[in-house]
Amino acid sequence: MSVRTVSQLQKGEKAVIRSFSDRLMSLKLLEMGCVPGCEVRLDAVAPLGDPICINVGGCYSLSLRLNEASTIEIE
Amino acid sequence: MKQENIKIALVGNPNAGKSTLFNALTGLRQKTGNFPGVTVEKKSGSFKLAGEDGKPDRDVTVVDLPGTYSVYPKSADESVVMDILANPKHPDYPDAVIVVVDASNLQRNLLLFTEINDLGLPTILALNMLDVAASMKLTVNAVQLAMQLNVPVVKINARTGEGVPVLQQAVSTLLDKKEKPALKYFYVPKGNEPALIEEVKELHQLDNDYVALQYVCQHDNFSFLAQPVRAKLDTLIEKYEFDETGFLADETIARYKTIRPIVDKSVKSEGATEQPLWTRKLDKVLLHPFWGYVTFAVILMVIFQAIFAWASYPMDWIDENTAALISWTKEILPAGVLNDLITDGIMTGIGGVIIFIPQIAILFGLVSILEESGYMARVMVIMDKVMRKFGLNGRSVVPLISGVACAVPAIMTTRSISSRHERLLTILVTPIMSCSARLPIYSILIALIIPSTKVLGIFNMQGLVLFGLYFLGLAGALVSAWLLSLVIKRTEPGYFMLEMPTYKLPRWGHVGFMMYDSVKSFVLQAGQVILAISIILWVLSSYGPGDSMQAAEEKVITAMPSAPAEELGAAVASARLESSYAGSFGRFIEPAIRPLGYDWKIGIALLASFAAREVFVGTMATIYSISGDSEDVLTVKQRLVQEKNDKGGPMYTPAVCYSLLIFYVFAMMCMSTIAVVYRETHGWKWPLIQLAYLMVLAYVSAFAVYQIMS
C-alpha cells in the first residue's frame, strides 16, 4: 500500500503526521505546528473541493491547498 | 543604567493578539508610518512609566512588528522583523522585546519565542488568550513556564486590558536589572555549525551565536549588509558545506523537541482539546458549499446598500449645508476676485471632498468588522480555488476588497502573499477595483440618469446600478489577471497555508479608530490635492491669454444685442470660460475625447483628475460655478442637469454618463497608486505597463459604450 497523505483524509478522520515529501513545503508546515507525531483531523473542505481545513493537534484550524496537504505523509 | 527613552518591540504569531495588546498598551497615543527604506506599514505608539523611588518618569516607545510564525520570513512583510532585530544600528532596534503568545496554542507559539530569545535581546513573554485556552479546557501554569523558559512571563488579556499594567512594570524591572543573566540558548548548534558561527562572529564582531547563524541563513534579506559582505558569507557557506534548507528543518524540529517537555510541564488539559464550539458551528455554515457563498454575497450586498442608501442621509445634509454656507459667504464678503476665489474655487472644491466622508467611514468600518471577526479568513478559503483559476491567490481577496476603499493600502496588503507571481498579478489588477475616490463620480452620474425607484420592494435601483459598476470592476480585475497570467510566466509555486482564527466579536473601539483614521487620511491627503487643484483650476479658468476673454465677451454682447440680461450673462460667462487658459486646454484635447461623447468642459475635468480621480467632481463644481449664473448657488447635480450641449439638448445624456462611468471604472487616474506600485515592485516597469494597459482599456470601453448607446 502506498503512503497516504493528508489530502486523502475523509471528513472527520484523524491521523498522525509521519513525514514530509517536499523539503521547502515542510519548513512552512513545521512553523505552522505540523510536527511529525502531531495528530491532525480533516474538519472541512472548501465548497469547490480545495482548499481544506485541518485541525492541528486539537489546537487550531489550518487551511491549506490539496497540493500542500499531499506533501504531508500520515500513518 | 538609566534610560529616559526606552524602545520596545512587540513580536508574535499572527492572530496571537499582538495588535490588540499594542492598542491596550498605547491607547490613542499611536501613529502609523513606514519603516525606513521599505513600505511596510509601521505602527508605533508610546506610554509613560511612572518613576519610583525618586526616579524620573520614562517614555516608552512601542513598535508593533508584523506578525510572523518564525524569524525566517515567508513574505515581504515578515522580513522587516529580522531586518530590525538582527541590526543594533537600526533606528527601531529595541531595548527589549515582548513576545505575545496565544496560550491556547502554546507549542507552536513558543517556536517563535525561543528563536527571539536566542537572539539575546531582553525578552518578556506576554501570555494572552487564556480565556480561549480555558474554553478548550487548558490551564497554563505561568510560574512553571517562567522557570522553564528563564524569562518573565506575564498573564494578560489584551482585549480587556487585564495584566497590561503588570506587563509595563515588568518591562521596567527587566531594564533596571544591573547585570544580564547569562543567555540560555534553546537551540544548540551541532556538526560544523559552531566553527562556522565562530568565524562569522569574528568577521562581524558579533557576540551572539544565533545572530551569527541568521547572518549565514538570511543575509540576502538583510538590507544593512552590503553586497561584498553577502558574497563573503556565501563563500563561508561553501567552505563549511552548510545546507540551508536541511538546517532550517533540523533546527525547527530540534526546537520543538525542547519545547514539548516545557509545554507538558506547564499546561494541564482535561481530556481532548477542541476548538471552541461556536467556531466549529459557524464554520459549518460559512464554509458550506451553498450557504457559504450565499452568506458572502449577502454581506457584499449589505456593504453596497450601506454605502449608497444609508450614507445618502448624512451626504444630503452635508451637500445642502455646504451650498448654504457658500452662498452666505458670497454675500458677506465684499464682491471681487478674492470672493470668487474663496467661494467658487476653494469652498466648492472642499465641499466636493467632505461630502464623501460618510461613505468612506461606513466602508472602512464594515471591512474592519469583517477582518476583526475572523470572517475574512473564511472568505479567503472559499475564494481560493476561484482566484487560482485567474492566476491569483485566496489571499488576493483582501487586497481586492480593500481596493474598494483605496488601492494604496490595498496594494500594501499584498505583501502577505508569499508567491511573487501571484503578488505581482494582484498588484496589477487591484486598481481596477472601484475605490472610494470613484464613488463621488459614480454617485453623481448615477443620480443624474437612474431614477431612485425600488426594485423587488427592497433594493434601490441606484444601489443596484452602483453594485453593477463595482461588479464590472471586479470582473475587469479578474479577467485582466487571467490575461496577464498568460503573459507573465510563473517562476515558483504559490503557497496558501492560512491559520483560521476563532470567531471573535469585533473590538468596537478599534473599528471606530479605523473609521476615524481612514477619514482623516482621505480628508488630509485627497483634500490637499483637491484644494491645490481647485485653486489652480480657478485661476486657469478665470484668466486667459492676453485680452482673449475680454474679446470673447464683447463678441457675445455684439452678437446678442436684444437678449434678456439673464441669458446674456450665461452666454458671456460661458464664452469667457471657453477662451480662458483652462478652456484652451479643454479645446485642445477635445478631438481626442469627442468619440467618447465628452466636450471640452469634461476634458478639463479629465485632465485635472489625472493626478487623482476624486478631483473630477470638485473640478466640475468649479467649472460650472464659474460658467454658470453666480447669483444663486446650486448643487453640482442641479448644474449638470441644466447643462446644455452644442445642439441645445441636455449635455448629460445616458450615453455620455455611461461612457464616463465606464471610463472611470478602468482608468488608472491616481498618482498615489502609481507611486505605491513603483515602491512595491522596485522600478518603473510595472507601474508604466499598468498605466498604459488600463488607459487603453478605459478609452476603448468608453468609446464602445458611447458609440453603441448614442
From TrEMBL, chain A:
<dbReference type="Pfam" id="PF04023">
    <property type="entry name" value="FeoA"/>
</dbReference>
<keyword id="KW-0408">Iron</keyword>
<feature type="domain" description="Ferrous iron transporter FeoA-like">
    <location>
        <begin position="4"/>
        <end position="75"/>
    </location>
</feature>
<dbReference type="GO" id="GO:0046914">
    <property type="term" value="F:transition metal ion binding"/>
</dbReference>
<dbReference type="InterPro" id="IPR007167">
    <property type="entry name" value="Fe-transptr_FeoA-like"/>
</dbReference>
<dbReference type="InterPro" id="IPR008988">
    <property type="entry name" value="Transcriptional_repressor_C"/>
</dbReference>
<dbReference type="InterPro" id="IPR038157">
    <property type="entry name" value="FeoA_core_dom"/>
</dbReference>
<protein>
    <submittedName>
        <fullName>Ferrous iron transport protein A</fullName>
    </submittedName>
</protein>
<dbReference type="InterPro" id="IPR052713">
    <property type="entry name" value="FeoA"/>
</dbReference>
TrEMBL record, chain B:
<keyword id="KW-0812">Transmembrane</keyword>
<keyword id="KW-0406">Ion transport</keyword>
<dbReference type="InterPro" id="IPR006073">
    <property type="entry name" value="GTP-bd"/>
</dbReference>
<keyword id="KW-0460">Magnesium</keyword>
<dbReference type="Pfam" id="PF02421">
    <property type="entry name" value="FeoB_N"/>
</dbReference>
<dbReference type="Pfam" id="PF07670">
    <property type="entry name" value="Gate"/>
</dbReference>
<keyword id="KW-0472">Membrane</keyword>
<feature type="transmembrane region" description="Helical">
    <location>
        <begin position="655"/>
        <end position="678"/>
    </location>
</feature>
<dbReference type="GO" id="GO:0015093">
    <property type="term" value="F:ferrous iron transmembrane transporter activity"/>
</dbReference>
<comment type="function">
    <text>Probable transporter of a GTP-driven Fe(2+) uptake system.</text>
</comment>
<keyword id="KW-0813">Transport</keyword>
<feature type="domain" description="FeoB-type G">
    <location>
        <begin position="5"/>
        <end position="177"/>
    </location>
</feature>
<feature type="binding site">
    <location>
        <position position="27"/>
    </location>
    <ligand>
        <name>Mg(2+)</name>
    </ligand>
</feature>
<feature type="binding site">
    <location>
        <begin position="64"/>
        <end position="67"/>
    </location>
    <ligand>
        <name>GTP</name>
    </ligand>
</feature>
<dbReference type="InterPro" id="IPR027417">
    <property type="entry name" value="P-loop_NTPase"/>
</dbReference>
<feature type="binding site">
    <location>
        <begin position="12"/>
        <end position="19"/>
    </location>
    <ligand>
        <name>GTP</name>
    </ligand>
</feature>
<keyword id="KW-0408">Iron</keyword>
<dbReference type="InterPro" id="IPR011640">
    <property type="entry name" value="Fe2_transport_prot_B_C"/>
</dbReference>
<feature type="transmembrane region" description="Helical">
    <location>
        <begin position="522"/>
        <end position="540"/>
    </location>
</feature>
<dbReference type="Pfam" id="PF07664">
    <property type="entry name" value="FeoB_C"/>
</dbReference>
<feature type="binding site">
    <location>
        <begin position="128"/>
        <end position="131"/>
    </location>
    <ligand>
        <name>GTP</name>
    </ligand>
</feature>
<keyword id="KW-1133">Transmembrane helix</keyword>
